[in-house]
Amino acid sequence: MTAPAVRRSLVLALLLLAAAAPASAADPSALWHIVHDRCVPDQVQRHDPAPCALVDLSAGEARGYVVLKDISGRSQFLVLPTARLSGIEDPALLAPGAPPYLADAWAARRFVQAQLPVPLAREDLSLAVNSYYGRSQNQLHIHVDCVREDVRAALQGARATIGESWRPFPTPLAGHTYLARRLLSPDLAGTNPFLLVAEAAPDARRHMASYTLFLTGAEFAGKAGFILLADRADLTRGDMASSESLQDHGCALARR
């Protein structure tokens, strides 16, 4: 797509999301309808992903994904499967050979970068998947955006203490306690962080709906990798397990 076409697609996506937003609580399938009823048919029939910024069906519709500009923030995008998947708790995400949606989402950070006036480092960018209790939509969607400045500082400050197994992060982030681990991989190829969350606690696999996943780029001894965070909802304490709260949809990091 040309740059003007991309801008037109984003404007249309914003208008559609704005129209859907008041009804999102009543219609938890609003995002699914945008993907299934608009973006995929437009790509197949007219070779135009609008209102999405990208529709990738190269692996087939059952394993494809779309990139959609979110109505919130200057640079936030969503990555959604073209298959009907409810959210982080969907068993298909833990199945052998599951599509690499998180790797696709990390690759889609280029759309975030294109909205910003300065280039950002991998440590500035992040992915977030909210729990069942921390979301309004029942179609898996991965938030792709900048990291909050205070969260970035805390993670980088504790980077040397983060190992290759899940351990409590030493300080609360956005008011909540997270588990943290590192992952050595430049692009998430060949790895499935959803499976890693399922191993975060003995009963995590049975309670995936209660978990949220956050990851951000990092470097460990000069090797590219990621810091992964996981949190389990605790409704009695007001913790909805929404790691999207660790992102900054205004991207202050781009204004440094």
Structure description:
By secondary structure, the protein is an alpha+beta fold. The chain has a single domain (3-255), classed as HIT family, subunit A, CATH 3.30.428.30. It contains six helices and ten strands, in the order ααβββααββαββαβββ. The chain has helices at 3-20, 30-46, 101-107, 109-114, 149-157, 193-198; strands at residues 54-56, 65-69, 77-81, 125-129, 142-147, 167-168, 179-184, 211-220, 223-232, 247-248. Strand 8 (211-220) and strand 9 form a beta hairpin. Residues 1-6, 9-16 and 18-24 have low confidence and may be disordered.
CATH topology: HIT family, subunit A
Total domains, how many?
Answer: 1
**CATH homologous superfamily grouping:** HIT family -  CDH-like
Computed over alpha carbons, the radius of gyration is 17 Å
CATH class call: Alpha Beta
**How helix-rich are the residues, as a percent range?**
10-25%
CATH architecture verdict: 2-Layer Sandwich
Envelope shape:
globular
How is the main sheet built?
Answer: 10 strands, antiparallel
Low-confidence residue ranges:
1-6, 9-16, 18-24
Distance between the termini: 31 Å
What average pLDDT do the residues reach? 92
Helix tally equals 6
Please trace the helix and strand order, writing H or E for each element. Answer: HHEEEHHEEHEEHEEE
- Strand tally: 10
